[in-house]
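Review box. Two proteins, two foldings.
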Amino acid sequence: MIYLAGIFITIFLFIVLISKKRKSQADKILAAWLFFTGLHLVLFYLFVTKDYTQFPYLLGVEKGLPLVHGPFLFLYTLALTSAKKVTKVSLLHFIPVVILYGLMMPFFLMPPERKIDVYNHQGQGYEWLAVILIPAIMLSGIVYVILSFYLLRKHKKNIESQFSDTEKINLNWLRYLIYGTSVIWIIIIVGLDDDYIYTAVVVYVFFLGYFGIKQVGVFSNPVLQEDNSIVAKQQLNTETVNEIINPVTSSEAISLETDHDSNEAIESNEKVKYKKSSLTDEDAEKIHDDLERIMSDEQLFKDPELTLGELAQKLSIHPNTLSQVINSFEHKNFYDYINNLRIEEFKRITQQPDSKKYTLLSLAFKCGFNSKTAFNRNFKKAVGLSPTEYLSQSEIELG
């Protein structure tokens, strides 16, 4: 039966995760989420097979479980994308579950025979529970999915403010997780039968296992290289990137303002950061001039792995300051700024006669791009045309 398969896979993923040697806080949250998901599937299986009569002490427990999945999704996303640790205060997200179980306490205190009788009569005497529970479940799903998407979008912007190439930064795992949860909540809101909902949950668990095992560092221990950075197959997962762009706490970041050797501490809230900045217009203009000069002379944008921290180190300034200057003078984030320079370089060298013997992709690589997808996407975004359309319109032929 498909529900049994889902239960076994959930238990398997839970065991794999808790046996992981270097468990992060995100791993612990995901493990707890898998535990409650497995419990939810077990209780539904007992209901479908009518075996719940053999476990009357479990009756009613399943009612509050739909309210835990939204908070778990949000907290897991928060743990992966935020520099701050998820604290005990986050348990407040589970207050609706506690309130629900508090309201159901008279039912839990009933004799087993009476509980079974209530279930056999479709919840007779507890019709009020559905009136409260259904809107609460829908609201919980909508709110926490939206919040999780917001965190993911914010994290993506943060990444683009630090890296000139995001192709190796893998956000797919978290994206699939949120999309999958969204689909399940849509099925719930539409009002399909429980069979459809739990079948969707089982399919979701299958994909969760597949993509989770495929994604480096989720259900396996990440590979530690000699430089102690967590990388595998040249792909960085969401949690690893968060460690890179948020390596210190906010209190530590203050001390780094005067320490150029430790310039990788980045504040995620640009507006607050700039508002507190003591950078004068004169200093900002000088930094921008230095930036333009070093880009023209050394063409650092041709380095596909260039990061904000590395560029700031070249200019002997803090990354926050450089980010502020780029945003203020170029009206772009670091990612768009560097890739626009690469595109301008591509447009320049295609005008040279010697470039005709090269292919379009080889010239793109020469300018600092390291994938055809990134080149095409950024070129279309900046120019409004695809690279081939641009070359055709400019009557340029390449090898």
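Next protein.
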Amino acid sequence: MAFTRSAGTRSRVWLASGAGAAVVAASVAAVAWNGGSAGASGGEHAAGAVAATSAAGFRHPGVLVGKAQLDAMRSRVKAGKQPQKKAYDAMIASKYADLKRTPKPRANVECGSSSHPNNGCTDERDDAMAAYTDALAYTVNHDQRYAAKAVQLMDAWAKVLKEHTNSNAPLQAAWAANDWARAAEIIQYSPYGAKWKGAKRFSSFLRTVYLPVVNKDRPTTNGNWELIMTDATISIAVHTDDRAAYDQAVARWRKRLPEYVYLKQDGPLPKTPPGVSGKAATIKYWQGQSTFVDGLAQETCRDFGHTGWALDAAVHVAETARLQGLDLYKEARPRLTKAMEFHAQYDLGAKAPSWLCKGSPKTGLGPVLEIGYNEYHHRLGVALPKTGQLVTSKRPAGASYFLGWETLTHADAP
């Protein structure tokens, strides 16, 4: 596997294969990190992550956060800039950053509906989120104890977990896989990566235990399932340099998003997945909603919580694709921006019309719009007043399930 890294105006190429590639990239990162000097902005050059491009064409680090975001995050926290400083402080004070955490792996994680039964479900999600949290903390503070803790958590689960079972298995696997892949990507392409002897085993773990479960179509479940699973698929694909899985994730995203968020151009009824056909079945699938307007989502009248998960998962896929040079954001701009503004207005207290969820939608998106707002408003200059008001009111975004510290990583991110 070949890795290419830019060093100032020069370009160097290292040739390696398998786990050796990670060691080479990590060694270069260590040189860059230790040799960085303070810049005028108060940040440091080469703030930990080393930019690399694999033979498969993937840019690393490139799962939800890339080198530019990681560098900006650290620079802003070190300079005491908001909202990153407050977000970082909240993260470090959370249970997920506890350096005394003991991993709780098990061979079979059994999760039924709403995690009943809960045989390892919470433990797996929490340990995965902790690994990602520790990776972000290490990026900011350069304290190797956090990197070591992330590795301890990843190695423990990679040695033990064999399967996910019961009805919630695909969703549970996706929740955890998203955070595992983000953590692994940051650690592997950092100075600590050279010390991570289990990196190759962990990549295999993601490919064999998680990818077959999450890289599947789930056409007739509520749409948040397939979007979260697609988020996990593209995350694993990038980290493990799996071009086929990456292409499958992109194709699934392109199909599912129009089936999840309605636009008038779709016609009088929303687009529907296989297994849902006809007006009556469509209305039933859309939670009994029979009036369709721009930005309405398939789960809007279920509750805004699941809707927020789906919208953020869709944005995660687009953000990872952006880091890999594919502009899915452009394709999704009308659907995502209209969905964000549509739901934000009701979360801010606007009275719902009688035709919407019988006049009583269950609001509460949660802090899920930060990354989408950053792309469309900060990077592209799209006016999103309601989204902006809601995003700033929710800062700093915390962590739960597969959503973690998005104010820290993406508020006004490059």
